[in-house]
Amino acid sequence: MTTESAATDQSAQPRGAIIVGASSGIGAALAHELAADGYEVGLTARRTEQLKAVGGKLPTKAYVATMDVTDTETAREHFFELADAMPSVDLVVISAGVGDANYALEWETERQTIDVNVRGFTAIATAAMEYFESRAGENGVEAESEDENRNTDESPGADGHLVGLSSVAAYFGNGGTQAYNASKAYVSRYLEGLRSRQVGNDADITITTIEPGFVDTELSYGSFWECSPETAASQIADAIHEERDHAYVTRRWRLVTWVLKALPESAIRRLFA
């Protein structure tokens, strides 16, 4: 793992965020949104030079960590190392994802999608929850003392905030991107399960599911209501600030998913044929 910093120092203890999958697209755009809001940002992905380029343009300190989420155990180790290197981690955003079309059902392509979108996602989600819950335990022991490593006045959630990027593709199967759609259904249901797990949990952790429609990124296959990564990042930042359980990006996709959930499978097959 490589950890480097850039940008200016701040007198007040800033909030901290880790973005997994920050070298391009929504993750990179969200780094700019969060930094503009005062967060120090930990940037992770496989492409180190691109991470450095993103970090070098942020107005707050950036921490760069090379991470391949398909190597799950090493990725978890690097996550904890990055969290320890940062003064505070109040927010973790999992934006890493792949979605190559695979009409030929080549196993390697399907496996890669599962490795990144399911195994890699879960590895980091559980690491983030472990980190936040361990911090909650420390805060409970020292409830009367000031936590010098956190800005509790503005932190999202008392003990942390986990955000996962799913997709409106979670609501239907699609020939050619069957593994991608299935993996996003997994992400949405997994985060829903984590929210259910929070009932009665001593740790106060906010968990947000983001379901974008078409965004102009490397994964985009269509232009129907397509938005820019910057627009998506702005709406995601709003959802983070509001500590929402769920958000569609852009918001108009709420209507599309409502229709998709109401349609029979035969109609959906014809729609996406």
In short:
By secondary structure, this protein is of the alpha/beta class.
Rg over alpha carbons: 18 Å
Full CATH superfamily name: NAD(P)-binding Rossmann-like Domain
N/C terminus separation: 43 Å
Biggest sheet: strand arrangement: 3-2-1-4-5-6-7
Report the β-strand fraction as a percent range.
5-15%
**Oligomeric state of the chains in view:** single chain
SSE class: alpha/beta
Count of runs of 4 or more consecutive helical residues? 8
Major β-sheet annotation:
7 strands, parallel
Residues in helix, %: 40-55%
Low-confidence stretches: 6-11, 143-155
Question: Which CATH class is shown?
Answer: Alpha Beta
Number of strands: 7
Order of secondary-structure elements: EHEHEHEHEHEHEHH
The name of the CATH architecture is 3-Layer(aba) Sandwich
Average pLDDT, all residues: 88
Tell me the domain tally: 1
CATH topology label: Rossmann fold
Shape summary: globular
Commentary on this structure:
This protein has 273 residues and is α/β, with parallel strands linked by helices. The chain has a single domain (16-271), classed as Rossmann fold (3-Layer(aba) Sandwich), CATH 3.40.50. It contains eight helices and seven strands. It has helices at residues 25-36, 48-56, 72-85, 107-141, 178-197, 229-241, 253-262, 265-271, and strands spanning 16-20, 40-45, 62-66, 91-94, 160-165, 205-212, 246-249.
